[in-house]
């Protein structure tokens, strides 16, 4: 590793149902970092929200026993540092550091790489922490992360600019409680059957169910409320083809990846969490070579067709629309946008956007001519560029309105 290598804080885990999925994606990213340029430092967020570090947290085997991992991991406190760095200080809590006589170690992070899925890591929470501490971070900002995480707000935003979405209704749990029959009537009137029910701010297909009748719809909505207090019910596309496109860039320059068509298992009509992450076979790519990546396969284990079997014209249409949506959500770094095609009508619909896609969509960028290490490098360089540009603008005034002279003026104005 070079003496000038940047320290990259790889954030993984998180308080979200996708905790383990995040670990896979983040460890893949850490393994792909060019060690001559970057030194990865794990910043693990446990399921109770505590932050830890330790070299062994870069080894997927360490996560087989979370209780043991936390006994040996080092708790952290975070502070804003000088020159746009994140300062991390080891915390003595009677655990990992209690036997040490040396003072707690303090180290700096140059760039934060959020590898979180769901929860505060993908909805703008960690991004807001980085903004507050003035630390460069990869991926989309607070706005794109927050809106992109909410399937209802995402659909409304796309509708406002004429991007087609399927018919849907949404409601909060307090609107549903004690008025279930009214809610079911509304779904049947505005959406119909079959319907797809989803937690509005979930991911990785967790809590998603298909309903063919009123009884199934009721059960699916109740189940979705286990994961979120807002639920969306969508019209199911009968002759469905799912097509995904990843994007890389920022507001000034964006490029699309090749397209993919995920393939559900024979028993499932919608892609499930098991389809995406719990395949017992090797998974792979139909129509091309198997996609390999460092560490666990994660999203790369899902069966998929790459490139998707579409005409050149249709491919270009989807890529152009994906770029438009990427810019609409003010995204940066890598994102993945999922579309649906109704084969019966040839209609194209926006489905959702993933501002931190599983496995960072490396399996789409490698066949696009961008290997995983280059993908990570470009994400980090985009983060640093945006940080420089932000700090090059006027962010404060060198005026103290609370100085004695200024205060007297304010008091006089108030008394007039």
Quick take:
The protein is an alpha+beta fold. Helix content is about 35%, strand content about 25%.
For the structure shown, list the relevant keywords.
416 residues; alpha+beta; Rossmann fold; Dna Ligase, domain 1; D-amino Acid Aminotransferase, Chain A, domain 1; 3 domains; seven-stranded mixed beta sheet; six-stranded mixed beta sheet; globular; PreATP-grasp_dom_sf; ATP-binding; ATP binding; D-alanine--D-alanine ligase; EC 6.3.2.4
Strand element count: 17
Structural class determined from secondary elements: alpha+beta
Q: Kindly report the CATH topology of the largest domain.
A: D-amino Acid Aminotransferase, Chain A, domain 1
CATH superfamily of the largest domain: ATP-grasp fold, B domain
CATH class categorisation of the largest domain: Alpha Beta
Distance between the termini: 66 Å
Over the alpha carbons, how many angstroms does the gyration radius reach? 23 Å
- How many H/I helical runs? 14
Strand order of the largest sheet: 6-5-4-3-2-1-7
CATH architecture of the largest domain: 2-Layer Sandwich
Overall geometry comes to globular
Helix percent reads 25-40%
What amount of the residues lies in strands?
15-25%
Number of domains: 3
What is the average of the pLDDT values? 88
Enumerate the spans where pLDDT stays under 50 for 5 or more consecutive residues: 273-295
Q: How would a textbook summarize the main sheet?
A: 7 strands, mixed
Task: Please give the structural blueprint.
Blueprint: E1 6-13, H1 19-32, E2 38-45, E3 51-53, H2 66-72, E4 74-80, E5 86-90, E6 106-109, E7 111-114, H3 119-122, H4 125-133, H5 142-149, H6 151-160, E8 168-172, H7 173-176, H8 180-190, E9 195-199, E10 209-211, H9 214-224, E11 230-235, E12 240-249, E13 254-262, H10 273-277, E14 285-286, E15 304-305, H11 312-328, E16 333-342, E17 347-354, H12 362-365, H13 372-391, H14 404-415
Parallel strand pairs: 1-2, 1-7, 14-15
Antiparallel strand pairs: 2-3, 3-4, 4-5, 5-6, 8-11, 9-10, 9-11, 12-13, 12-16, 13-15, 16-17
């Amino acid at each position: 590793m070079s003496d000038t290598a940047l320290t990259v804080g790889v954030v993984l885990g998180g308080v979200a149902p996708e905790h383990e999925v995040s670990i896979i994606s983040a460890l893949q990213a850490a393994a792909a970092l060019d060690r001559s340029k970057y030194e990865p430092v794990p910043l693990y967020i446990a399921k109770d929200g505590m932050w830890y570090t330790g070299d062994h947290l870069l080894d997927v085997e360490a996560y087989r026993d979370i209780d043991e991992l936390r006994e040996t991991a080092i708790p952290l406190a975070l502070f804003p540092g000088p020159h746009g760095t994140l300062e991390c200080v080891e915390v003595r809590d009677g655990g990992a550091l209690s036997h040490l006589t040396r003072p707690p170690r303090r180290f700096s992070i140059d760039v934060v790489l959020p590898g979180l899925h769901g929860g505060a890591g993908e909805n703008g929470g960690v991004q807001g922490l980085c903004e507050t501490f003035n630390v460069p971070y990869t991926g989309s900002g607070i706005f794109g992360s927050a809106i992109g995480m909410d399937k209802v707000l995402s659909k409304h935003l796309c509708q406002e600019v004429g991007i087609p979405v399927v018919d849907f209704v949404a409601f909060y749990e307090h609107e549903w409680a004690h008025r279930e029959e009214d809610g079911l009537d509304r779904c049947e009137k505005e959406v119909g059957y079959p319907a797809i029910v989803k937690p509005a701010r979930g991911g990785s297909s967790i809590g998603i169910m298909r309903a063919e009748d009123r009884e199934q719809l009721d059960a699916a909505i109740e189940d979705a409320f286990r994961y979120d207090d807002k639920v969306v019910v969508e019209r199911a596309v009968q002759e469905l083809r799912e097509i995904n496109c990843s994007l890389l860039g920022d507001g000034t320059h964006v490029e699309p990846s090749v397209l993919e068509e995920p393939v559900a298992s024979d028993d499932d009509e919608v892609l499930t969490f098991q389809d995406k992450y719990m395949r017992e076979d090797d998974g792979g790519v139909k129509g091309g070579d198997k996609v390999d990546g460092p560490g666990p396969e994660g999203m790369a284990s899902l069966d998929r067709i790459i490139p998707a079997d579409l005409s050149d014209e249709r491919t270009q249409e989807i890529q152009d629309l994906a770029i438009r949506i990427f810019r609409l959500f003010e995204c940066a770094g890598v994102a993945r946008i999922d579309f649906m095609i109704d084969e019966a009508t040839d209609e194209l619909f926006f489905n959702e956007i993933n501002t931190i896609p599983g496995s960072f969509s490396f399996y789409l960028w490698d066949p696009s001519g961008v290997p995983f290490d280059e993908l990570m490098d470009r994400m980090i360089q985009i983060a640093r560029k945006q940080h420089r540009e932000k700090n090059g603008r006027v962010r404060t005034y060198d005026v103290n309105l609370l100085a004695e002279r200024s205060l007297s003026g304010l008091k006089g104005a108030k008394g007039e």
